[in-house]
Design a protein that fits this description.
This protein is α+β, with helices and mostly antiparallel strands and 328 residues long. The chain is built from eleven helices and 13 strands. It is globular and about 55 Å long.
Length: 328
């Protein structure tokens, strides 16, 4: 019974961590300063983790990606009591989006039982394909996009011309996007937002049917915490970009041929995910200011139950700043 109560508290407390990061990052929306967005979110998230009763170890952090000396791989987080947990964080997914006032900037974190999270070490990029419950058993990361679209459409009881595909608007995806259009699908390009794309692909309320392409490994593993328990699926395979990352992945002994499922990335249903919007997007509202209040919109999920909670919070800016020593 006590363990079940602890699980519920962890699931809800994690939202406070992403709220803190989003509130701090939101001060820099539209200012064109990516570094300030990142630094503010990292500091706030690290402080907020101190209030969660876990003995956490950062498996996937900000240090190796953003050269920030906080939330680095191996750092201990949490109050220092409670269950031992693996931690993956992305204080801001879409720092460019936040810095330039674009959509789908998010703060996200995922945690799971110790030893159950795949450690990508220095791998920064992976191929990924994500779908919801209806098409979870039909996707193939090696198949042509046309074949996947036909199978997804059939599984969802619609025509290929009704399938909406989320693809990051990057030069490396030009042929992928064109092939999807030729197959008849609707291609919706986004400048940033790996996590947002995968969340939409598995959300039955979303119009997105498929997220596909090459994106961040960090984002894939955090998103796996969210998808776990939903019935959806995401297939991934490490795909290093450039000689440096290729050499590091090889040195780390990682298998770039292995296709990983959600269960390979997060090998337990004792996992939790939280995400808070920084800038407005299809998944969540961004941080809004209403007089003395800052309003946040968040989602939290719990792998064991598959429960997804949508949370709107009104934060008294003056009181919260005084309590947390953070400027919001």
């Amino acid at each position: 019974m006590q363990q079940h109560l602890a699980d519920k508290n962890i699931a809800l407390d994690l939202v406070r961590v992403t709220e803190a990061a989003a509130l701090s990052a939101a001060r820099f929306i539209g200012r064109g300063d990516k570094d300030s967005v990142d630094a503010a979110a990292v500091e706030a998230m690290r402080i907020a983790f101190q209030g969660i009763h876990i003995r956490g170890t950062v498996i996937i952090g900000q240090g190796q990606k953003g050269n920030v000396p906080m939330l680095y791989s191996g750092e201990g987080v949490g109050f220092g009591d409670g269950p031992e947990m693996d931690v993956a964080v992305d204080p801001v997914d879409g720092t460019t989006s936040v810095a330039f006032g674009r959509s789908n900037g998010l703060s996200a974190a995922g945690i799971c039982s110790k030893g159950a999270m795949f450690n990508p070490k220095r791998s920064l990029h992976c191929q990924k394909i994500a779908v919801g419950k209806e098409a979870a058993d039909v996707i193939d990361i090696d198949a042509p996009i046309k074949d996947n679209l036909i199978k997804i459409a059939k599984a969802k009881g619609k025509g290929v011309n009704e399938v909406n595909v989320f693809i990051l608007d990057k030069p490396r995806h030009a042929k992928l996007a064109q092939d999807a259009r030729i197959a008849g699908a609707r291609v919706l390009l986004h400048s940033d937002g790996d996590i947002a794309g995968a969340l939409m692909a598995v959300d039955p309320m979303s119009d997105i049917d498929l997220m596909v392409g090459l994106g961040g490994t960090t984002e894939a593993i955090i998103t796996a915490c969210a998808i776990k328990g939903s019935g959806g699926q995401m297939l991934t395979r490490l795909a290093p970009l450039g000689d440096k990352e290729t050499a590091e992945v090889t040195e780390d002994g990682l298998d770039t041929q292995r296709i990983m499922t959600i269960d390979d990335l997060i090998a337990t249903d004792q996992c939790y995910f939280a995400v808070t919007g920084v800038t407005a997007g299809e998944v969540l509202e961004g941080v809004r200011y209403k007089g003395e209040f800052a309003v946040t919109s968040s989602i939290t999920t719990r792998g064991r139950t598959g429960t997804r909670r949508y949370i709107q919070a009104w934060h008294d800016r003056k009181k919260l700043s005084k309590m947390s020593s953070l400027e919001i």
